[in-house]
Amino acid sequence: QVQLVESGGGLVQAGDSLTLSCVGSGRAFSQDGVGWFRQVPGKDREFVAAISWRALRTYYADSVKGRFTISRNNAKNTVYLQMNSLKPEDTAVYFCASSGNPLSSGDYYTQSQYDVWGQGTQVTVSS
Question: 3-class DSSP state for residue 29?
Fold first, then answer.
């Protein structure tokens, strides 16, 4: 079983940048599809971005497209989420998740396709 640990969250101002990291340990994390999701209290968790295991495919929510970039370094068992031009509405707890199963393109957007989740990291963007 893989374990995921997110880091890099914090308090920033609108327009600033942050990079989140998700480090995986355990099973062959480098072969997992990985996604980032976020959740605001009282709302459903929503998809943010995802990346296939060899980084050949990436996926983004419309709300972050052009501002966020997902990448991975399999030698370091780490997936990154570079967040630029942050907005107050990006404020949320950000979770990374991994799937040890083969994923089709549509699967990356779906929470139930991921079997391991991290504990989350808080991102707060002030206006």
Answer: helix
State the average pLDDT over residues 96-125: 95
Q: How many residues can be counted in the chain?
A: 127
Q: Judge whether residue 27 has pLDDT over 80.
A: no
**Measured between alpha carbons, how far is 64 from 36 in angstroms, rounded to an integer?**
12
Q: Locate 44 and state its tokens.
A: 């459903």
> pLDDT band at residue 122, thresholds of 50, 70 and 90?
very high
Contact 125, 90 (CB under 8 A): yes
From the centroid of its chain, how far is CA 102? 18
Q: How many other β-carbons are positioned within 10 Å of the β-carbon of residue 58?
A: 14
Q: Torsion-angle region of residue 10: left (phi > 0), alpha (psi -120 to 50) or beta?
A: left
- The pLDDT tens digits of the residues spanning 80-100 come to 999 999 999 999 999 999 998
C-alpha–C-alpha distance, residues 108 and 51, integer Å: 8
